[in-house]
Design brief:
- There is one protein chain.
- This protein is mainly alpha-helical and 186 residues long.
- α1 runs parallel beside α3, α3 packs antiparallel against α4 and α4 crosses α7.
- The longest helix is centred in the middle third of the chain and has 16 residues.
- The protein starts with a helix and ends in a 5-residue tail after the last helix.
Length: 186
């Protein structure tokens, strides 16, 4: 089974049929490079399991797996609708990492590009859900978000859904995960 097949299979984690369909449509619209390139063009910012052909998809799968592992530790976020919104954001967070045109390196604005690019599918989930999910994607880099645009703690949790998306993405980029996902030693 290819990593692309695995990613599409993981769509079953999304309970809301509309959000699952939205995510599938967006993945089908993702630039071809998303399925081929490494998570980091230099290897500096991601572990070796996310290097090479298909590394960006493996990074995405790792972030989704980490979310599944962390949901029990953050019960409010593991319940609907937050759970589905977080998963959708993780599926899509790096689909435009090199922009629409496959730039040589990560685009600084890649966190903000999906909001416009996937807009044609907005009607599938509605404006409110779309805006919330895109805000999670926009801030998935946490303190490294360009312009320092990080979410306010308005959710009333120890960690906001947007911070949770960032945490999963951040953990999926740690080289220490080699021990978990294969390859490399500490």
């Amino acid at each position: 089974m290819t990593h692309q097949d695995l990613l599409f299979k993981r769509l079953s984690l999304i309970d809301d049929e509309r959000k699952r369909q939205f995510t599938k449509l967006c993945l089908l619209m993702a630039p071809d490079y998303f399925w081929r390139v490494p998570a980091s063009s230099t290897g500096k910012y991601h572990p070796t399991f996310a290097a090479g052909e298909g590394g960006l998809v493996r990074h995405t799968l790792a972030a989704i797996e980490i979310a599944e592992e962390l949901f029990p530790a953050y019960p409010p976020l593991g319940r609907l609708p937050h759970r589905d919104d977080i998963l959708v954001a993780l599926f899509l967070h790096d689909t435009l990492k090199r922009g629409v045109d496959n730039a040589e390196y990560t685009r600084d604005d890649h966190s903000f590009t999906p909001a416009g690019y996937y807009r044609r599918h907005l009607a599938v989930i509605g404006h409110r859900d779309y805006k919330r999910i895109m805000s999670y994607i926009a801030t998935h880099m946490g303190i490294w978000t360009p312009g320092g645009r990080t979410p306010a703690r308005k959710w009333g949790y120890r960690i906001s859904p947007a911070e949770f998306v960032h945490l999963c993405d951040y953990l999926a980029s740690r080289k220490g995960l080699e021990r978990i996902f294969g390859g490399g030693e500490r």
